[in-house]
What does this fold into?
Amino acid sequence: MIESVILATQVLLMVAGCLFFGVGTLGLFRFSDTLCRIHALTKVDNLGLGFIALALLPLAPSTAAGFKVVLIWIVALAASATSAHLVARAVRSGEKAGIEKDSRND
Amino acid sequence: MHFFRAFCLRAGTFYLVWWVMTEGDSSGLGPGAAIVVLVSILSCRLYPPSRHTLHPVGALAFAGFFIFRSVVAGADVARRLLSPSLPVNPGYLTVRTSLPAGGPRWLLANTLSLMPGTLSVRLRGAGLELHCLDLDLPIDEDVRSTERKVAGVFGLKEAKAEEGAS
It folds into this structure.
């Protein structure tokens, strides 16, 4: 009984995680500028990966393996936040340089 | 003494990571201990211990807050994306943070990138430039509550004077 409940929860979490990844990718197509796309990718994929990691936890053969799944989520989060920040900074610098260039041309 | 404490804390964390990475394999624990000591020495040389130390209770409160807010953030962006009219009102906003430079500010910037509607663009001194998905959201309020949680992680008292000045 309990096993089937766990299995159903796992399937539900897994499907939810995949759906979130799908929606995050949809953001790449629906949003028109780079920064909005990053919003979609970082936040929605964070949640998608979180759901998938949660779904995998009951399958972990040992406590350490369970922690490993959580560690993967944390490291992926740190990487996504840092890369999002770097891309955003590059876009912003590019915008400012573009404005300065335009005002010089006028 | 301060240095020794930071060293022990880092070595403990690295050993935990080692144990997790080897999935608790007992044959790896010996070599792991040697590597952990070397890595901790290297870490303390490259990143000398700062005066900001982690507080376990604050860190737990932060983790709970973070998980809750990331669910809100993901659901919020997904809702906007799935609605046909695509309701966004993007723009830049600069907020001032009362957190001290270094670790706390860095954690705030990175956390805000994963919180609903905000993406940190640039950190210059106490000014943090954000890109907001929807400027109609109460961004300033969200930043303050995140700031309080980050302050809790480092056991900082709230810098009320600076907050009042901003």
